[in-house]
Amino acid sequence: MAGPNDNHRFSVLIINPNTSTHMTNALKPILESLDYADIYFNYFTAPSMPSINSGEDSITSALHCRPFVEPLVPKYDAFLVACYSAHPLVGMLKEAITEKDSTIPEYRKKYVTGIFEASVLTSLSLVSSFHLMGDANLHKAQSRDTFGIMIVNSGGGGGSTARFAGVETTGLTASELHTAPAEEVSRRISDATERLIKSTSHPVSAICMGCAGMAGMEEAVRDGCIRAYGERQGRRVRIVDGVVAGAGMLVTACKAGF
């Protein structure tokens, strides 16, 4: 990939904290299609950890990636950790940026997020709204729409909030999204989406794709939405790709200077 040029105002490093080059390469055309002409995207693939399937794996991958990506902090304006978990590398990079801020006067602002955080925040912005209830006292209430997360791996959902519909799994690991037969992957994604929607009593207005490896697989999610809700309502469900959401948040932060 060509390096940054004079037309690029900001640079963003996309970090894949597992060793799957298939996954890294699948992200490139998706981010290029966003047409951020003044943003330079570069990519890092972890030297170890073939697939991240647990919290322990996230910690291990963060420790493996840290010595490679922390020295890159001065080179980029923003960093996106492309793993659908509360990945420790996000916090590690924020600490590294804070240390640079304290030692270099007028250090250019830098930003970090993970695709998990980005997809949840984006989904909340899509489903949450306030409206005035037209009773005698006119009080403010929130919409009852919810969002759900459809993940790979064998993890399950637990707990609930007013906005969270739940979690459903495909039963595949991140690496299997690109090694299993495409028809099997699509079927599992569609089935998991349908189960997620049918498991909640409130309308699901947004679904987060719970793995960077799902990038580009929105049609399988849409198929599950249509099977659960029918054509019209199924096409109204917002499908949130965490990589796209994260890139958008970082680009906005860079340009706004938050």
Automatic annotation (TrEMBL):
InterPro entries per record: Asp/Glu/hydantoin_racemase (IPR015942), Hydantoin_racemase-like (IPR052186), Iso_Racemase_Enz_sf (IPR053714)
GO molecular function, one term: amino-acid racemase activity
Pfam families associated with the record: Asp_Glu_race
Superkingdom, taxonomy of origin: Eukaryota
This protein's record includes keyword Isomerase: yes
Coiled-coil regions listed: none
Keywords: Isomerase
Enzyme class (EC, first level): isomerase
EC code(s) of this entry: 5.1.99.-
Similarity field: Belongs to the HyuE racemase family.
Protein name: Hydantoin racemase (Dcg1), putative
